[in-house]
Give the backbone structure.
Amino acid sequence: MKTSCFSRMKLIAPPAEAVAICRGLPAWYHGRALQELAPTRAMLKMPDEEFEPLMRTILAALDPQEVAERLGPHAVLLCWEKPFQLCHRRMVAEWLEEALGLEIPELGYSRAETPAYATMRPKPRAARPLQLKMM
């Protein structure tokens, strides 16, 4: 099992199989999805400090063994963020790792090269242009 993002799907080669674990999917994606591992739409707008405990609550309600069996050993957990940007897919991977003794790296990297969720930083947000109000 590995993690990755939609923009790197071309790197997924059989027997590996893409499994989306996010709320919104690209229109062109027609692969498997496991929505139980996706944050809610409301969560996507939350600050990280509010998002993380809610995502952990979602995971705590699931059976990691059952989830792993449904995903399969060759699953590549997909979401939108580029490698090593703060993303719930790393949280999901670490949840499975801790519960089942698995090692789940980012596709194309070893587990040692894959940073822990707690050390990841959010993607830079675009600066909002200064809006001057004309009177």
Observations:
- Residues 48-60 form the longest helix (13 residues).
- The mean pLDDT is 90.
